[in-house]
Amino acid sequence: MLNPTKTQNGAHNTIDHPPLDHEDLPKHLNPWLSILIKPRVTIRYILAHSNYKKYTLPLFLLWGVGQFMIASFANLLPFFLPLQWLIPGIIIVGAFSALFFLYIGSFFLQIIAKAFKGKGTFLQTRTLLAWGNGVITIPPLALFFIASLSALIVSQLSDPTVAGSSLTLLAFLFFMLGVGACSIFGIWQIVIVVKMISEIHKISTGIAFLAGLLAFIITFFNFLTISSFTVLPLIYMVLPSIFAQ
Fold first, then answer.
1. pLDDT digits (tens, 9 = 90+) for 79-90
2. Deepest of 10, 26, 40, 69, by most Cβ within 10 A of its Cβ?
């Protein structure tokens, strides 16, 4: 059994993991920012400090709800569904997808990485997925939320004026900026996660990308299969009552 590591003040680290090279880690690092430019060092720093473990689930819940909210607004659902139904739906379905991808996705990624001689543990894999996906979701999510909310408010103006038309154009520009930001951050999110997989499992970047891609495809297929028997029937049951109001 692996012994827990000790921090400088003598406190034991509660995260059990195979030996990682912590000797060259900086003494002070802000993982909320460094993860964007130094994902390899950051994930080792996070695993070396057990107090960051508590953010794993909240970060992935943020990712799941945020992704489903972005998808809903991008498909203009707020213009067709009442907000009192849409917002709870986004939270419930987003949380369900987050929990599924966090645990099932980590499970498949761990198996595939091990097949490629990966060294990391399931806990490490789950942690890197949460931090790699969750933190980078915050900036585009905030921008997209502001842009979409402004577009929604303007669209519901009963008597548009010249000023209203200007606001509509401004909201549209913000909306497109939000879409662009999501695309850019989405690409960088893949880069961050792949580098973290490579670092934790001690495999090449190319193998890490392949492992991550295979794990995502398998997890996504299982998510669609399970959703078709659980979430989708519930949606079809609820939608008629929504439009009947």
1. 555 556 667 777
2. 69
Phi-psi map region of 68: left, alpha, beta (phi>0 left; psi -120 to 50 alpha): alpha
Structure tokens at 180: 């662009």
Confirm if 133 and 60 have CB atoms less than 8 A apart. yes
Are the CB atoms for 105 and 129 separated by under 8 Å? Answer: yes
d(CA 208, CA 198): 5
Identify residue 37 by its one-letter amino acid code.
I
CA atoms of 192 and 111, how far apart (whole Å) = 20
Sign of the Cα torsion 80, 81, 82, 86 reads: negative
Phi-psi region of 60 (alpha: psi -120 to 50; beta: other; left: phi over 0): alpha
What is the reported pLDDT for 1?
39
Say which amino acid occupies 149.
L
Q: For the chain, what is the radius of gyration of the CA atoms?
A: 21
